[in-house]
Every structure is written in structure tokens, then in C-alpha cells.
Design brief:
This protein has one domain. The chain is 49% helix and 9% strand. It has a two-stranded antiparallel ribbon. 20% of the residues are buried.
Amino acid sequence: MLTVFLDHSEIAELDRQRPDTRRRGGWQYLIVTLAQSVDRSTGRLTLDSVTLDRLHKYAFEYKDGGWQTRLRRIFGRTLGPNLDGTTLRPAA
């Protein structure tokens, strides 16, 4: 598990996805779930390894477009340029 703290602009980017789109696909489900999970007062969001892998996959393993850019805007500051959090994880 990895905990990040999003700022107000990053939370606003999460909120751009309408909650009623949650059941329309993997991307929509992921982003709506994250938006609903973030602590609005502190920006705290806990990410498990499956979610970290999905963030990286959606940001880099598809053609570059809207959601890839949004993920980098939301998580680039806290998870690093690869959105994998490896720079933040303690060495095993």
C-alpha cells in the first residue's frame, strides 16, 4: 500500500469524471473509484499495488490521449514520471 496526498487541483481533475460513468469501462471505474476514495479534507489517497499497476497501464500502455494526460496531471507529482511510485517505495 502506498499513501499519497493530492492537492486541490489534482482532486479537481479526479472530479472531472462523472460518477454515473462508473460502469462504462475500466478507465471510468478506476477514476470514479479513486475520486470517491480520496479524503477531501486532507487529499489522502491510499493505493494498493493493483491500482498502481492499473494507473501505469492506463497512462502508458495505450495511445496518448485524454485519460493518459489526466492521470499524469493527477499523479505525476506524487508517483513520479512513470506513475508507479517506485521512487516512493522503501527498498525491500
